[in-house]
Amino acid sequence: MERAILHCDLNNFYASVECRDFPHLKGKAIAVCGRQEERHGIVLAKNELAKKYGVSTGEPIFQAKKKCPYLVITPPHYDRYLYFSNLAKEIYLSFTDQIEPFGIDECWLDVTGSQTLFGTPYEIAETIRKQFHSQLGLTVSVGVSFNKIFAKLASDLKKPNATTVITKEDFQKKIWKLPVESMLGVGKATLKRLHESGVFTIGELAQSNENYLYSMFGKNGSELWQNANGMNNSPVAYMQENKQPKSVGNSITCPKDLEQEEQAQKVLLYLSEKVASRLLHHGMLACGIHLMIKDSLFQTRQYQQTIEIPTRQVKDIYAMACRMLKKHYKWKHPIRALGISGFLLVPQAQKAQLSFFTNTEELIKEEKLEAKIANLKDKYGKQIITYGTLLSKDFDLYKEDINNQIPYRPFQK
CA-to-CA distance for 188 and 286, rounded, in angstroms? Predict the structure, then answer.
């Protein structure tokens, strides 16, 4: 039996949830943005009305306001987005357990074995769209095809709230004319080299010499050629294979109480490294950071804050933790223990998902660097490379943390 793959893409997800939760926003051009008072406030998502004014994801708020003076700015509510993302998965699970998330608002479904119960793939897609509208108050575009690559392409062809089918018989007619960057796996660097070789459409990629593409890109070149020719056979994972932690964190009890903010900041940097490493291991981004402070009287205080842009980078986690420490802790007593955790976790999908943010190339470079550092630490030990600020020999700060990992003592005399 020919495979039946759906790709479901929630339309303008963040903005749609805001309009659903706050009915007064309906009929207005809105943008979900980071905090306006911050220098790096950007557009994270926008609705269809804002799109018509040319508002773009990733641009600074002031630029968006110039394009659309009546643009309504609303802050992100990641807890609500995760809530509706999970509700969406519950709907998918009523049709199949082969569900593979691609970011917070997209999923592949393999409904090959579901047709006897629920009808043709097209009928299943239509049922899903109706259930999203009636049960969640949201819309979804569904692509139907015989592999994951073409199913995603199909969901992109018609938005919002539509079902598009690509078959083995008509895929050349429907997608070969599309720009080559429309296909999953063609990033900026690959696109530049393809253009230099005279390849501008998916059809031109499909009709290129596979060996030539292999010589340019290695294994990825062959995969691109196969994908363009409808030969992708990658499976859709089962739901149980996609289970991820709801939060990741590390805590540490210091053998010597911390009496100064500078001392606490060094501990927070150490913990931020560990949390970032665990996020990388799980392939997740954190939408919020939680800080735990236990003073010398064993009184525990906990604070948390959501982040403008989901992250797994040390510098972002550290900066947020330091801000919360500075804002909330009054230093009436020394600090005995500290903990940091990332929560509201979302999958780190393919690099294409990073176009969601500004300065994409710089972000990719930073994440690659942190990944290489993590690999070095895994291979040669945690102390092989560290931040200069953790090399102080003022005092022996750490003892073994609650996770029973080997203690790291950057302050050892």
Answer: 25
Residue 383, pLDDT above cutoff 90: no
What is the pTM for the complete model shown? Answer: 0.69
Least confident of 126-140, 170-184, 248-262, 325-339: 248-262
Residues 6+ apart with CB under 8 A from 50: 15, 29, 30, 31, 64, 68, 71
Rounded Cα distance between 399 and 21, Å, is 47
Which strands make up the sheet holding 106-110, listed edge to edge?
99-101, 106-110, 5-10, 140-145, 163-165
CATH at 230: 1.10.150.20
Indicate whether 12 pLDDT > 80: yes
Active site residue 204: no
Q: Please name the helix (run of DSSP H) or strand (run of DSSP E) that holds residue 19, with its range, or none.
A: helix 13-21
| 277/374 Cα distance (integer angstroms) | 6
Catalytic residue among 100, 106, 181, 308: 106
- Record the tokens describing residue 314, joined without a space: 């040390």
- Domain of residue 45 covers 1-167
What CATH number is given to the structural domain containing 4?
3.30.70.270
